Amino acid sequence: MENANPTRTPLPAGYKPTANKGEANSTIRSQFQSVIGSLLYLCLGTRPDITFPVIKLSQYGTNPTQKHLNKAKYIIRYLIGTRKYSLIYKDKEGEQGFIAYADSD
Fold first, then answer.
1. How many domains does the chain contain in total?
2. In the chain, N or C: fewer CB atoms in 10 Å?
3. What are the pLDDT tens digits along the chain (105 aa)?
4. Residue 8 to residues 5, 27, 60, 74, 87: CA-CA distances in angstroms?
């Protein structure tokens, strides 16, 4: 997916996943669960902006279709397009820095 075209949103506007009426292909199921697991890991640590779409797709983890897998890849394309986004904290002089204190008593 190195050459994938980036997207501006985690999922297309108005997208509503539908349940699979038949039995899922074991290869698609394995790939889908692997991708969703990796995306869930990112949600917890560094990318809370993708939490809703990932959770929505993860509901279809036991019986996914190729469409579900394609939408999981769509989220990855969103991550590719936003990988340079960051929050930068600056002090009054414009210097980059961040100081944190904690009281654990």
1. 1
2. C
3. 777 888 899 988 898 888 988 888 999 999 999 999 999 999 998 888 999 999 999 999 999 999 999 999 999 999 999 988 877 777 777 776 666 777 775
4. 10, 29, 24, 10, 18
